[in-house]
Write a structure and sequence with these properties.
50% helix; six-stranded mixed β-sheet; elongated; 284 residues; alpha/beta; single chain
Length: 284
Amino acid sequence: MKNLFLTALVFACAATNAQALEKTLLWKISGNGLKQPSYLYGTIHITCDATLHPGVEKAMAETQQLYLEIDMDDPGMQSAMMNVMMMSGGKKMSTLASPDDVRLVDDYVKANLGMPLQMMDQVKPIFISMMFLTKLLECPIQSVEDNLMKLSAAQKEEVFGLETVEQQMAVLDAVPYEEQMNELVKSVKSNLENDKKETNMLVDLYKAQDIEGMLKAARESDNVTTSKYENELLTKRNQNWIPKIAEVAKQKPTFFGVGAAHLAGDNGVIKLLRKKGFKVEAVK
């Protein structure tokens, strides 16, 4: 009986520790030596409505600088991205799939991007997939990061990055070129239908401020780039960000905006900051 009681107690404690985070995108960071609070906000990179809620504007007004995943107003960002778009080792997309599949991709790229695949043959397939992002929602695409940067500019505050463009793009190399090409072929064969379905689901979860739901959706995605490489795309980056967030927040109150899926889970930014001794509270 005593052993059963102890077992039940262990499971109860585990359930408490694994309790889902509240449904909100905005979190207040305090304690652990901070003189003033900073804020953590979950963003989404493409959406139909990137309007910032009054609570976000208030948090921005209470902070003195903006940190995004990368410094998106860096004038050198585009050239930095161009430098990491090409495959290494002389790899070409035309050799990463069957001739029939390459022909399908070529036709689709010409029809939708206006250029033959041959002109981009050495570009990493994942970048070609990214070129179709604007087609995944039935609306003019908006970006939460863009609106955060506009508000930061209006407040005459600087924008910084938790990582460099090169570091972020290097993460994508964890996905083998062959798998990147397989995903591109899948998208083309379905005319982006599954991509559209998953994107709309993520947008709905974002509207509901369900960060745990967004992480779950990423884990269950049909796209292996997202579901198979969580450790590289999310976990390792989250862990790398924590020391920088701690250091920056101690220097001055800061607004941190990162993809909402980075916030959730045991290896998410919220729980990792709590493990470091910070108080991280939901802001409704």
